[in-house]
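Re: weekly structure request thread

Next one in the queue (115 aa):
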Amino acid sequence: MGGKKITAPQAVVGIFVIIAMATAAYAIRPFVAGEVDVASASATAKDPMQVIYEKVAIDAIAHYRIVKQNGSPADACASVLPVTSAFLQAKDHAKYKVWKQIQKNECAAAGLPNL
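Done, posted below.
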């Protein structure tokens, strides 16, 4: 059997890709199969996508805090943008409004226009 040999790093990447695809397929299965009503799913606290949005927002806030402590005012202005975007994506109007004000303050402190 001739052919190109696969190296260990290529095999690891291939396995990772297969696992990632299987995980993604499993995660969206209820939506594709019609087991979850997409219209009502966003209103439930157990919605998997809402959980993901919240985790993204928490991660963005952690990044912002690191940059705020260690970076310049311009860095803080730029790093708050993913936080506001995460709350916008999550459709969390109250937290979006709070972080939009923080963004405005950070950008003003850096002498930059509000992004």
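Residues 8-109 form one domain. The chain has five helices and no strands.
Next request, please.
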